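User: Second chain of the day. Same drill as before.
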Amino acid sequence: MTADPASPRRQKNLSSYLCTIIRAVAGKEQRTRMIRVDELLERFERLPVFVQTSLVVIVAAIGADALTVIFYAVFFFDRLLLDLFLTTVIVVLVSYPLGYIFIRQNVRLTRMTKELQRAATIDDLTDLANRKTFLLEARAVIERNTSEKGAGVLLFIDADHFKSLNDRFGHATGDAVLHELGSVIRSSVRKGDIAGRFGGEEFVIFLVGANYNKARRICDHISSKARAIANVLGLKDTSITVSIGVAAHQSGDELDAVLRAADESLYAAKAQGRDRAIYSNRDSIAA
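Assistant: Same format as last time:
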């Protein structure tokens, strides 16, 4: 009977395939364990410093007592209870103040890190992403896009007559208006969308995976809520409105191209009387 010359090759390929599967499964299990450990550490860090310290001391005391039991069970069993008590007292007296100091310092450093990270990514006045963060996140979404329909729709929003508002009511009122606009935008977008303050009175939103119909509903909501800000802030005899330029991302487009298209639509909205949304390559639609 003649041996199949391709058989060893098939066996080698099968072995290689099985090894690949085993490595993938092992890697997945390892990542899962790491995620679980990270989740436990995050929960631990959210606990008060007193509770964190107490847990660390309890674990240290249990470990010390376990070693004491093992040692004295072999050599000095008659002194076990006394030495267990002394070991526990020593561990608590020594480790609690040290643990409290180090854990408290770690909590302070963690809080400072989060504050610095927030300052570097979030606009403090509006609680939206700052310009740099918006650009990074929007570009990442576009780079990951594999759909022929594009990655979504971009809204370029500008508060109408904002300079006149500042001159009339002062910068504190202007800041309050921007803060309220930030709240309006946050309440209008969906989870997964990217919203940011682009600078001054300009805002940007990238509606991930959306089309013009979805963008129209969000534009209507933002415009309607913006008109109510004057009443919210008690500004009499004035109106607050926004102009919106809208552009859809097309497959293969860079973010800069979508921003330019939305910016051109925004200028068209301003030129046509403000308080409206203009859609790139479409007729104006009153907001």
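The beta strands are 152-159, 194-199, 202-208, 242-248, 277-279, 284-285.

User: Great, on to the next one.
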